[in-house]
Write a structure and sequence with these properties.
Elements (H helix, E strand, L loop, with lengths): L8 E3 L6 H12 L7 E3 L6 H11 L8 E3 L7 H11 L7 E3 L6 H8 L1
Helix pairs in contact: 1-2, 2-3, 3-4
Length: 110
């Protein structure tokens, strides 16, 4: 996957990836500058995993959709996503349903 520079969509829903798996995938994603859609729903990646994904997306200017539903992400992980996504003007869809973000997390992403 790390050498697939033209990959535009990454679907990893419901694979029980967990935090370590998300970190490993994020490491590969750093070399992919054409990702437009990322689906990581139902993988229990938690704050550690979403922080790794956020760092991997820092240089990505093509992202349109990000789906992170049901991953036990709290306000800590939401702040990382919010920090990185602040300058992602092309991003038109983000799904953080069923995560315990609370008010602080929602504000950070907004």
């Amino acid at each position: 996957m790390a050498t697939n520079y033209g990959l535009s969509k990454l679907y990893c829903d419901s694979n029980n990836i967990g935090e370590k798996g998300a970190e490993d995938i994020a490491e590969c994603m750093e070399m992919m500058d054409s990702l437009k859609k990322i689906c990581f729903e139902n993988n229990n990646i938690k704050d550690r995993g979403v922080t790794a994904l956020a760092r991997a997306l820092e240089e990505n200017d093509t992202l349109l959709s990000l789906y992170l539903e049901n991953n036990d992400i709290t306000h800590v992980g939401a702040k990382e996503i919010g920090r990185v996504l602040a300058n992602k003007y092309k991003l038109s869809k983000i799904n953080l349903n069923n995560n315990p973000l609370k008010d602080d997390g929602l504000i950070a992403v907004a």
